[in-house]
Amino acid sequence: MLLAEELALVSHDPDSGRHGLGNRAQLNACMAGLLVAELLLEGAIGPGERADRLAIVDDWALSSPTLAAAAQVVAEKGPKMKAVLSHMNRGLEERVGLSTWDAAMLGLARAGIVGPVTGGLIPVSPSSTRAHATPSSPTCTPQRPPMAPSIPAPRWCSR
Length: 159
Description:
The structure is a single chain. This protein has about 160 residues and is mainly alpha-helical. Helix content is about 45%, strand content about 5%. The chain has helices spanning about 5-10, 25-40, 65-75, 80-95, 100-110, 125-130; strands at about 45, 55, 140, 155. It has a two-stranded antiparallel ribbon with strand order 1-2. It has a two-stranded antiparallel ribbon with strand order 3-4. Helix 1 packs across helix 5. The model is unreliable at about 125-159 (pLDDT under 50).
């Protein structure tokens, strides 16, 4: 799961499938920064000669089409970080046909974390809820689906 997808998961309203935290422009700006951070972590880009510059690494293979499109935006609009960040949403729309938010939500839908139609969290069946309960807290209910093992499922417990 990409860092931008994690922000989308945290900020979206499961009832409406829309963002419930901040406005779209703020979220797109944050997600653009997270995509750049992910590119740095994967080694596709590196720090440039100055603090506000990025350097492209020639030989990179990325884990997702969204990251590949983000790397193309960096290559086209870089090396200045400001230009890259301000163009990321439009650049993704040009390359993959989706805004930063929509690309992140599509990644979550493909991973089975959110529903593709409603945008809401995929419901957890009662049998899987019982499997996550412990003897000391028999009514614990995971708030995220058990099919996302890389994300610890927070629990709201009542006795």
